[in-house]
Specification:
This protein is an alpha+beta fold and about 80 residues long. It is built from 3 helices and 4 strands. The chain starts with a strand and ends in an 11-residue tail after the last helix.
Length: about 80
């Protein structure tokens, strides 16, 4: 598994939890649960120490380009 989407209930929890994943080898995108339900692939996510956010759709595209796989071969565990 090369990437994970981690959904949390609020920004405070997002900031707290993201600190535990700084040294992981896989890409971890963090987002809010309410955004997942409202926007799905267009939900804003933050990835590691990147100062600006991305849309979840953009992170999936980046993972597929990095690995050379098609979107159908990517897995999403929430």
């Amino acid at each position: 598994m090369k990437s994970v989407l981690y959904l949390v209930a609020n920004y405070d929890l997002l900031q707290f939890v993201s600190g535990f994943f700084r040294s992981t080898q896989c890409r971890v995108a963090f987002g809010l649960e309410r955004d997942w339900h409202a926007q799905l692939l267009d939900m804003p996510v933050s990835c590691g120490s990147v100062p600006h956010g991305y849309r979840f759709r953009e992170t999936l595209s980046a993972v597929n380009q990095d690995s050379g796989t098609s979107p159908i071969q990517s897995s999403l565990f929430v």
